[in-house]
Amino acid sequence: MSGMLRIVLVDDHTLFRKGLAELLEREGAVSVAAITGDPDEVPRLLRLHRPDVLLLDLNLGGSDGISVMQDLRNAGVSLPVLILTVSEAEEDMARALRAGANGYLLKSMEPDEVLDAIARAARGETVVAPTMTAKLVKLLDNKDSNAVPLLETLTQREREILAHLARGESNKAIARQLDISYDTVKLHVRHILAKLNLSSRVEAAVFAVEHRLAPGLEIRRD
Q1: Could you give the strand order of the β-sheet that contains 53-57, starting from the edge strand earlier in sequence?
Q2: Kind and range of the H or E element at 17?
Q3: Do residue 27 and residue 98 come from a single domain?
Q4: Contact in structure between 101 and 81 (CB atoms under 8 Å)
Q5: Is the pTM of the predicted complex or chain greater than 0.85?
Q6: How far is 122 from 124, CA to CA, in rounded Å?
Q7: pLDDT: which is higher, 197 or 160
Q8: Beta strands in the chain, from DSSP E residues, in sequence order
Q9: Which of 42, 54, 95, 135 has the most neighbouring CB atoms within 10 Å?
Q10: Number of folded domains that form the chain
Q11: Are residue 28 and residue 77 in the same domain, yes or no?
């Protein structure tokens, strides 16, 4: 993707959202189209500014960022949403990814890491804060201990696509490389998630790396 990415930042802490907006724009890679602490403002701001990515705090005072995201998804809004939070709880990350978040970022991350996550989300990838990767692996381990039998349910094409997911590739990129249609890739991804009892692309990517189907995410166990 070329050109400067436009983002909308939603966080109920005034100093944090203003400070982060200034840091991100100082790097020159993104344009912060709007910032707000009011979740009710989000639909209007998205219609007005048409951003490439939405950065959404998990806890918005009396509201919940995941509920805001689910309302957007139910309304047909498909732009990438990155949850930005202080919470390192496994259950919060799992809830966000299952609800359709394109990433789970921590407020302790460096600005350049957040910028990289924004760029990757805009390309259709799913991003998890590096310190959360091991926790995601733990979630997967707890979710299903019968990985090998599940893998055997995949067709050769599904295994091939799963390997591409492990490298963080978008559906469009996979379609180009395999010379198949975008809709066909989407269908295969849905089948992969269903067969492996997973809820998101990032879970599928970690699953693939864990079972050595392809190099991809760096799995940290510290």
Answers
A1: 30-36, 5-10, 53-57, 81-85, 103-106, 127-128
A2: helix 14-26
A3: yes
A4: yes
A5: no
A6: 5
A7: 160
A8: 5-10, 30-36, 53-57, 59-60, 63-64, 81-85, 103-106, 127-128
A9: 54
A10: 2
A11: yes
